[in-house]
Design a protein that fits this description.
The structure holds 2 protein chains of 2 kinds. By secondary structure, chain A is α+β, with helices and mostly antiparallel strands. Chain A starts with a helix and ends in a 12-residue tail after the last helix. By secondary structure, chain B is of the alpha+beta class. In chain B, 49% of the residues lie in helices and 18% in strands. In chain B, strands 2-3-8-5-7-6 form a 6-stranded mixed β-barrel. In chain B, strand 6 and strand 7 form a beta hairpin. In chain B, helix 1 packs across helix 9 and helix 9 runs antiparallel to helix 11. The chains are: A alpha+beta, B alpha+beta. At the A-B interface, helix 2, strand 2 and helix 8 of A face helix 2, strand 2, strand 3 and helix 7 of B.
Chain lengths: 367, 382
């Protein structure tokens, strides 16, 4: 085993080529993962921040906020369901936002809400908004008056909230009246009746069974579809497809990394067949030899991970703003785990060859 | 030449692993390219294949059809700009529709069927492959990709809202989806009808954008600038600009380019390290071959043949894999399409990159001194 480490230390150049290929693969994996996380987090923040036990849509909306309408009557029915502790109206308006001092209009989602949550303070006063922290990157500051939509409805930013974006649009959280006004002035074609919301957030009483409460809500109203938070996230356009596609691509990439390592160590083993038979002849076991190989592959993978990680951080600085790249520590950890497992499995491909080495070959008596 | 192929035949595992790795990379690249192609046509096909040389957006819409709407007076003002032969309102919205007995998302594009003169046909789909264009309210052209899901000629699609219009599909066109959803091109009146049924509280029905036909001989870029200057609160774009700057397409485009670039890099590196190691390992026999008179050109040719052979096998594996997963994608939200226009250049580029990757190994071969055959030659890598 010490031999393996020494070889690594004394002849790092020998592993440079495979390390280089793996580094690019790590870069690819982190980039893909970062893209997936960025797309996911930025699309779903608004739903995740609600602390909702249930989100009620009208049953003809196909689980789309923008097409859903829950009327005041229906809301009353929801309030009356056993196990429902509190409800809050929710409405979205996707509009351009003009930031003072900036030339470009940024993508915004004005969200009217009633219930505060852990990540979301009580609704601000009329005409004011909590802005998602990502809007700060676009030049939004506390105290700014941003203009929303073609009608340029002014909203004063009174503070920031984190991780609350919807469909890649910067969230502006407002009280329901302000949301209604924004909608009426900008999208007169999408206005809802007074008292109606696009959806209703439900929190259930302690001890009640969420599934049962959600089912009773739909039963009581006869006109709604109530989703859990996880279901509502999956209902956001593109989330499931994105996840499946990226996971498949990441899977293939990890497999390729495993193949590259397998290939390299198979070649290396071939080169060392003579040496290995000598080592075996002087008492080295197959296990020691394989362990050495595994150590080398893991060290190479770890080195590639560090280099690839640094390159990704560099890439993060230069990618255009349009790319929603977001690097999460959990993603880095998973990538490291995947690449290490691929390295170990790849090195094990040479196991059979090493076990078959005949120590007698060292003195020319073997095959 | 036989030497190269014989070596491959003797070391099947080694070359097999390499061909496998290359094959997977080829698969990854082709799969992502086709996915990207499918995604882009799925997102913007409806506008790409629409008779709308210039489209005018609300300037707050960030070039997003969904986020745009125009007031009637704006559409009228656009029609009066010098160089505009005709301007018509185009309605666009997504609804829950009932098609083939199921509720699905459906997009309506409404354009005026009764327009005459230069306005006639503005906003109509241009990629009709079957049937005919709508001639009256309640008729539609759908995307051929959705024909099997209740959007075939003769099928009736209902906007699932109280009093929603029933729309009969009378024609099919290629690549007419919008935002990866089934799309119907209908009369503007049908769009208004759907809009009122879907949201009875709405105060008005507004068009999303305006389609403009330029007068003969007018430069499109000049015209868009003139419209922007003449009409308040609008942004005019050529059809091509709309397709390229569509928000989804642009960020997807950049991301895919980086991913593809990395994948191309991996192919080059993997091929490079494999053949370099192989050459180093073969240093002794190669030196011997040189010593007994084999020209280095012969050895280099052997190497090139092997690289091409590995790439050919890898490409066969990669293309085979794409073909194998293709059936899984058809009918899904995004179709995996293999277009010769992208596939062939990609495969050529990959082979060229692999040959470039072989340069390190080739240099190694060229550096061999036959005289070394008479002394001990190390087979060290470095």
């Amino acid at each position: 085993m010490r031999l393996a480490v020494r070889e690594l230390l004394r002849r790092p150049g020998r592993f440079a080529v495979v390390g280089g290929a793996l580094t690019v693969l790590v870069l690819l994996l982190l980039f893909l993962g970062g893209l997936l996380d960025g797309l996911y987090l930025n699309s779903t923040g608004a739903v995740r921040t609600l602390d909702a036990d249930g989100i009620v849509f009208s049953d003809d909306a196909r689980q789309s906020f923008l097409r859903s309408e829950v009327t005041a009557d229906v809301r009353d029915d929801i309030d009356g369901v056993d196990g429902v502790a509190e409800t809050g109206g929710l409405g979205f308006a996707l509009l351009g936002v003009a930031v003072p001092g900036e030339d470009d209009v940024v993508d915004g989602a004005v969200i009217g809400y009633e219930l505060p949550s852990t990540g979301l303070p009580d609704p601000p006063a009329s005409g004011e908004a909590w802005a998602d922290r990502q809007l700060a990157d676009e030049g939004v500051e506390v105290g700014d008056e941003v203009l929303v939509g073609p009608a340029e409805v002014p909203l004063t930013i009174v503070g920031f909230v984190d991780d609350t974006n919807y469909l890649q649009q910067g969230a502006l959280w407002v009280e329901p009246g302000t949301w209604r006004q924004v909608l009426a002035e900008n999208r007169p074609d999408a206005v809802l009746a007074d008292g109606s919301f696009q959806a209703v957030v439900v929190r259930i009483a302690g001890g009640a069974d969420p599934d049962a409460v959600r089912a009773s809500v739909d039963e009581a109203t006869g006109a709604t579809e109530t989703l859990s938070e996880a279901e509502a996230i999956e209902a956001i356009p593109g989330i499931v497809e994105q996840g499946a596609t990226f996971t498949a691509v990441i899977g293939v990439t990890v497999f390729i990394a495993g193949l590259v390592i397998a290939l390299f160590f198979a070649l290396l083993t071939l080169e060392r067949l003579g040496l290995y038979s000598v080592l075996k002849a002087i008492g080295g076991s197959s296990r020691t030899l394989v362990a050495g190989l595994i150590i080398q592959s893991v060290v190479v993978a770890a080195g590639a991970f560090v280099l690839g990680g640094l390159l990704t951080l560099g890439l993060l600085q230069v990618v255009p703003d349009g790319i929603p790249l977001q690097l999460e520590p959990s993603r880095a950890a998973t990538t490291f785990a995947l690449i290490t497992v691929a390295a170990v499995l790849g090195a094990l491909v040479s196991l059979r060859r090493i076990v078959r080495i005949d120590p007698a070959a060292a003195i020319g008596a073997g095959a | 030449m036989l030497l190269a192929t014989r070596e491959i035949a003797r070391a099947k595992v080694r070359f097999g692993l390499l061909a496998g790795a290359v094959g997977l990379l080829v698969f990854l690249i082709l799969f992502q390219q086709s996915l990207f192609g499918g995604l882009v046509t799925g997102f913007i096909g409806a506008v790409d294949n629409q008779d709308s040389p210039v489209l005018v957006f609300n300037d707050q819409a960030r070039r997003n059809v969904e986020g745009s709407f125009l007031r009637p007076d704006q559409v009228e003002a656009i029609g009066e700009v010098e160089g505009v032969a005709a301007a018509v309102p185009i309605g666009e919205s997504t609804y829950t529709v009932e098609a083939g007995g199921e509720l699905v998302d459906g997009v309506l594009f409404g354009y005026p069927l009764d327009a005459a003169g230069p306005a006639a046909g503005l906003g109509a789909p241009t990629s009709l492959t079957e049937g005919r264009l709508p001639e009256r309210p309640g008729e539609a052209v759908a995307s051929a990709a959705d024909a099997e899901d209740g959007f075939d000629i003769g099928d009736v699609v209902r906007v699932a809202a109280e009093g929603g219009p029933e729309i009969e599909v009378v024609g099919l066109g290629e690549d007419l989806r919008w935002s990866v959803a089934p799309t119907l091109f209908v009369d503007y009146a049908t769009f208004e009808h759907a809009q009122r049924a879907a949201n009875p509280s709405a105060q008005v029905v507004l068009p999303a954008v305006a389609a403009v036909r330029p007068a003969d001989g007018v430069d499109l870029d000049e015209l868009t600038a003139r419209i922007d200057g003449a009409v308040d609160g609008v942004e005019a774009l050529t059809n091509q600009e709309v397709v390229e700057s569509s928000p989804g397409v642009q960020s997807v485009n950049q991301s895919f380019q980086i991913i593809l670039l990395l994948a191309f890099g991996v192919v080059t590196l993997v091929v490079a390290f494999f053949f370099l190691i192989l050459t180093v390992q073969k240093a002794k026999p190669l030196t011997l071959l040189r010593a007994i008179g084999a020209p280095s050109g012969y050895l280099v040719r052997n190497l090139l043949v092997q690289i091409v052979a590995v790439m050919a096998a890898g490409i066969a594996i990669g293309v085979g894999l794409v073909m194998a997963v293709r059936p899984l994608s058809t009918g899904g939200a995004i179709e995996v399409e293999l277009r010769p226009g992208t596939v062939v250049p990609t495969l050529i580029a990959l082979t060229v990159l692999a040959l470039i990757g072989g340069v390190a190994a080739i240099r190694r071969v060229l550096r061999i001194e036959p005289i070394r055959a008479t002394v001990d030659t190390g087979s060290e890598l470095a």
